[in-house]
Write a structure and sequence with these properties.
Helices cover 34% and strands 21% of the residues.
Length: 154
């Protein structure tokens, strides 16, 4: 965990800022909805504020195939760009579509295939982080963790 934070700092991540002032909680709610539209499953929202300096919020989701992972990631990126003019600071893993990380600085969306999600176990790695599962028939606005803006957000 520490090595991830150190690597991000070396890359200048500690200085990265989003251009828009849209709260991370709002982006996360919309990202959840975009993932649900593409039938991503096992969606979990993790509140990373008290646990890690990597991001304020993680949204994790699983796709049943590399094509579904691509569709889910594309849905998130397109929706956040169309609704808010938000573009990711960094995207990793898109070519292989086994674990795609879409980094919006204070929100990171992770979309996995089953095997990669089990292997890397982000929920276990950051076991102290508060988390909430999203029902497959739910929506982003139902997620209690996302009900209020992250402290310091406008």
């Amino acid at each position: 965990m520490k090595h991830i934070e150190d690597a991000l700092k070396r890359e200048g991540r500690d200085k990265a800022k989003r251009v828009t002032g849209i709260p991370a909680t709002v982006l996360a709610r919309e990202a959840v909805d975009a993932l649900l539209r593409k039938k991503a499953r096992d969606i979990v929202v993790m509140d990373m504020r008290g646990v890690s300096g990597v991001a304020d919020l993680f949204v994790l989701a699983t796709g049943d195939s590399d094509l579904q992972v691509k569709a889910a990631v594309d849905s998130v990126r397109e929706h956040l760009r169309e609704q808010f003019g938000e573009r990711p600071w960094h995207v990793e893993g898109y070519e292989h579509r086994q674990w795609v990380l879409v980094d919006y600085v204070d929100l990171v969306v992770h979309v996995f295939i089953d095997e990669r999600r089990s292997f890397y176990g982000l929920e276990r790695l950051w076991g102290d982080a508060p988390r909430e599962a999203v029902p497959d028939d739910g929506q982003g606005s139902d997620v209690r963790i996302l009900a209020d803006p992250v402290e310091g957000e406008s």
